[in-house]
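ARCHIVE CARD
CATEGORY: sequence design from structure
SOURCE FIELD: tokenized fold
FIELD CONTENT:
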């Protein structure tokens, strides 16, 4: 064989070896890339699961927070209503304790003779009535009105043709109310 042929063969062999090495390196690189791809795929799946878990927890936390907010709002409304009820009840109790004094002052005006004492009792009675008006306490109407079981307490019945049926004939004790709440029912005599 000639020297040129040997050199060519050596070159071809060297090139073939290079090619083989390149193919092996390529194959190795492909395996490495495939392995890395699988690892990344697994990591991606794990991350997706973690994201789903976190989203689930966030939704649960969000629902829990909404429930807590709703419970708090209900609590706030309930306590405000209870507070208002307690205030109203205390108000009614206080006014109820003052009504016998008002009744006695009205009786005293009827029996007082003219003079300083009668004038003083009248002034005190007027102050009482003004104070009740400022507080929003009103007297329940009884004269010339029909009997209303929501405002009046019928303690007697009388047959009187001059009055219509269920009309109030006489008032024994005045009644009072604040707004729609009755503090004391008016005790009345009702015509049949």
């Amino acid at each position: 064989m000639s020297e040129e042929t040997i050199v060519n063969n050596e070159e071809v062999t060297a090139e073939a070896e290079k090619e083989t090495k390149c193919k092996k390196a390529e194959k190795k690189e492909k395996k490495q890339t495939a392995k890395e791809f699988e690892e990344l795929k697994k990591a991606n799946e794990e991350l997706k699961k973690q994201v789903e878990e976190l989203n689930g927890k966030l939704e649960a936390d969000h629902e829990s927070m909404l429930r807590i907010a709703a419970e708090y709002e209900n609590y706030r409304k309930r306590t405000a209503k209870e507070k208002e009820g307690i205030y109203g009840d205390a108000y009614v109790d206080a006014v109820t304790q003052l009504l016998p004094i008002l009744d006695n002052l009205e009786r005293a005006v009827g029996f007082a003779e003219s003079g300083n004492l009668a004038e003083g009792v009248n002034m005190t009675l007027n102050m009482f009535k003004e104070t009740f008006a400022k507080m929003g306490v009103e007297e329940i109407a009884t004269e010339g009105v029909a009997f209303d079981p929501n405002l009046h307490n019928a303690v007697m019945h009388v047959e009187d043709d001059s009055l219509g049926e269920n009309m109030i004939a006489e008032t024994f004790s005045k009644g009072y109310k604040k707004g729609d709440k009755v503090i004391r029912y008016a005790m009345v005599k009702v015509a049949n």
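CARD ANNOTATION: The mean pLDDT is 89. The radius of gyration is 50 Å.
SHELF: design records, drawer C
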